[in-house]
Amino acid sequence: xxxxxxxxxxxxxxxxxxxxxxxxxxxxxxxxxxxxxxxxxxxxxxxxxxxxxxxxxxxxxxxxxxxxxxxxxxxxxxxxxxxxxxxxxxxxxxxxxxxxxxxxxxxx
Amino acid sequence: xxxxxxxxxxxxxxxxxxxxxxxxxxxxxxxxxxxxxxxxxxxxxxxxxxxxxxxxxxxxxxxxxxxxxxxxxxxxxxxxxxxxxxxxxxxxxxxxxxxxxxxxxxxxxxxxxxxxxxxxxxxxxxxxxxxxxxxxxxxxxxxxxxxxxxxxxxxxxxxxxxxxxxxxxxxxxxxxxxxxxxxxxxxxxxxxxxxxxxxxxxxxxxxxxxxxxxxxxxxxxxxxxxxxxxxxxxxxxxxxxxxxxxxxxxxxxxxxxxxxxxxxxxxxxxxxxxxxxxxxxxxxxxxxxxxxxxxxxxxxxxxxxxxxxxxxxxxxxxxxxxxxxxxxxxxxxxxxxxxxxxxxxxxxxxxxx
Lengths: 108, 353
Fold this sequence. Notes:
The complex is a heterodimer.
Chain A: E1 2-8, E2 14-20, H1 27-33, E3 55-58, H2 69-77, E4 85-87, E5 101-104
Parallel strand pairs in A: 1-5
Antiparallel strand pairs in A: 1-2, 3-4, 3-5
Chain B: E1 2-3, E2 6-9, H1 13-24, E3 29-33, H2 40-44, E4 50-51, E5 60-61, H3 62-73, E6 79-82, E7 86-91, E8 97-101, E9 106-109, E10 111-114, E11 120-123, E12 153-157, H4 161-171, E13 176-180, H5 190-201, E14 205-208, E15 211-218, E16 222-229, E17 237-240, E18 243-246, E19 250-253, E20 264-265, E21 268-270, E22 284-286, E23 291-292, H6 300-318, H7 329-332, E24 334-335, E25 341-342
Parallel strand pairs in B: 1-9, 2-3, 2-10, 3-6, 10-22, 12-13, 12-18, 13-14, 21-23
Antiparallel strand pairs in B: 4-5, 7-8, 8-9, 11-19, 15-16, 16-17, 20-21, 24-25
GO molecular function (chain B): ferredoxin-NADP+ reductase activity; flavin adenine dinucleotide binding; NADP binding
Family (chain B): Belongs to the ferredoxin--NADP reductase type 2 family.
Protein name (chain B): Ferredoxin--NADP reductase
């Protein structure tokens, strides 16, 4: 089953995309699969919460999974962090995310 | 001038394995890397994390894979220029290249193999007004010579291993060490966290958390930093210091290689994947994560394959008239440049009475 997400890229352009819930994908990978940010500027560490290149701001009221210690620690070192900042690589695509709106944080 | 057959840029797994394949063809290699140690992102980002898709290894720690590769290539005696970034390239009339690093070290080779991964690792710089004004005038991003900080006051910002480790180290060198971090929790080896706590209790490290540096003051040189506690501007205070060292980790940038006239697509170097991973400039190859071609996958195992084909092509370029057929290591063994030889033991044939 696919969920519909709205992703606002770094230029402010809105993209409505379908994201599969059955491919063990995360938000960072969805952004890469639709090439909404240039390769090499997102998901640099591959999804280990060891860089902040997939930082995004959650714009809708979805209940997301709690941040792990790793994500919390990385966000504490990242730049441009807001209260609604998350690392895309730590957010798994599940059916609860239908209608989620996120905006990519600026490139560091 | 350092001279070699294949000059490899990048000491990650792909670059290291290229030394092995080149060695089998009796070609010598020299490697340049911006990091002070070999291993690339495996050593810098995730040495303790497991990798599961190296053929023949059901599970291997990234750091162990690097150690194994270093062991595998040892007898081929690669040269290393570490802690320096490949900056410029120049083509000579004889077809060879000269690559100069940011430290001015010159290397000459007929073949260049760029195995630069995601690029050279550069310090992540926090967004603080006037940070750039004070670079080299009190603001440092790396500690190359700790003696520089002897009897000086130092403010370190960051919450990872390097912030912790350098705070511990400088506690014995600097006159005053202040560690500022946005959270009360640190992300580092448990021993380091414990040691910082000890030093704090002994009064050798001043710990300020949760806090961040929001401003820098000074004229020609840095004089003080403005620290904001608890994210509350009301609690801002100024702390006089000789040095401010933000340690927020490293992030890879393609860097000067992007200006070498190579065809770049999606932050990667376009290569001919139907043949030998050569770039648009004959004699310059790009292998591993740094290259791109239709269907490219950034996997270590793909980098190994690309390195192998690159070496065969390099051999033909260096020795256009030599005939050669690939030989299995099981048949030919491995003869190092150090005189060592590894080979399969001969089967003993014994008559049966």
